[in-house]
Amino acid sequence: MAGFRRAGLGSAEPPELLRYDARGVRLNEVRFHPAWHLLMQGVCASRLHNLSWQPTVREHASVARAARFVLHAQVEAGTLCPVTMTHAAIPLLQTYLPAAFEGWLDPLLSDRYDTHAQPGDQKRGLLIGMGMTEKQGGSDLLTTTTRAEPLGARGPGEMYRLTGHKWFFSVPQSDAHLVLAQTPAGLSCFFLPRLLPDGSRNAILIERLKDKLGNRSNASSEVEFRDATGWLLEEEGEGVRLILKMGGMTRFDCVLGSHGQMLSQEFEAVKGSNRHFDARWRQLRLRLHKIPEAQARELTRSLLLATGAQLLKYVEPPLADGWVPAMARSARLTST
Known about the structure:
- The structure is a single chain.
- By secondary structure, the protein is α+β, with helices and mostly antiparallel strands.
- The chain has 8 helices and 9 strands.
- It has helices at about 1-10, 35-45, 60-75, 80-95, 105-110, 240-275, 285-310, 320-335, and strands spanning about 15-20, 25-30, 130, 145-150, 160-170, 175-185, 185-195, 205-210, 220-235.
- A hairpin with a 2-residue loop joins strand 6 (about 175-185) and strand 7.
- The longest helix has about 40 residues, at about 240-275.
- The chain is globular and about 60 Å long.
- The chain starts with a helix and ends with a helix.
């Protein structure tokens, strides 16, 4: 029951943006209710953000992680956003992370939740976010206006200066974000740490937090890049292909989370029907048919999602580029 109480507190007291300190110095920090941090400690200790990518895990780790994800979704959904993006980013970073950030790989795979404002290689645990959407284009990424100019040589792992904005910048308190920006070769993917290797703040300005209908415990923001420093992942022009690998995996987690919430509501429906209806009312069609039908659908979804999670680690590119979104769509269709 403590988890449900914490979930309620996190939504009742949403995160607060701290733009400036008492002296007028820009902070760009987000303050959360203490219940949020307790919940995040729990999901990180359960390795919802990295279990699939542990070098010494058992064969079915992805299924175990999916089951934990579904269970936590029945308690609190906002804390799943940071862990799903981190989980989806880790395989990309294990392949393309610039040499200057090699020290991030171990804390990315830890089971610790670390809120300290320090460079990633000095922390015990890390979270990764994503920034794609801009206000003039919405989901049309080809309209992106944020631009990236090299600070020296061009190419993978090199430093660039980013100028522009993101209309939806998920989990702004993350230690780094993967973002899209225009280069002469087209949209490219960049690694933007919140703190630079020397400990100084990157020029990422949080303008406001979104006032959302749901998912209120989690912070989503609008930001501006004013000569922010980023490191190119892969080649210029490969940004959409690269970041959609991360996006596809987050969509699979979205289905897992939705499945968990539907399981929770199905449980509440069964509990409510037993509590409020006498024996005669329990014979109604709603009780005899509708709820069992819902239970059957949830079982079907559970089996499908477990199969998808098991195959997740074994599908290689280029098949993986289309397989993960297809599996997510298939799971959604079982809801209809």
